[in-house]
Design a protein that fits this description.
Blueprint: H1 13-34, H2 44-66
Helix pairs in contact: 1-2
Length: 71
């Protein structure tokens, strides 16, 4: 069963761009948490900044999945 539009991909180009941005944010969040110099990562970067960036990355992925273009 095919779409009425016969598109080979389930998402538009904008969805994939948003997904790539989300992946970059996820990667950046993990790098921030790993680069914390405090013992066991209990500094500001490992406890606060990294998880906030990760949350932003996951929310961006959520938006990318449900984004519909205006066409």
């Amino acid at each position: 069963m095919q779409n009425s539009e016969n598109k080979p991909f389930p998402f538009d180009k904008a969805n994939y761009i948003i997904m790539i941005v989300g992946l970059v944010l996820l990667l950046l969040g993990f790098v921030i948490m790993a680069s914390d110099k405090e013992q066991y990562g209990f500094g500001f970067m490992g406890i606060t900044l990294g998880p906030i960036v990760l949350l932003a990355g996951f929310l961006t992925q959520f938006v990318a999945i449900f984004y519909k273009s205006k066409k």
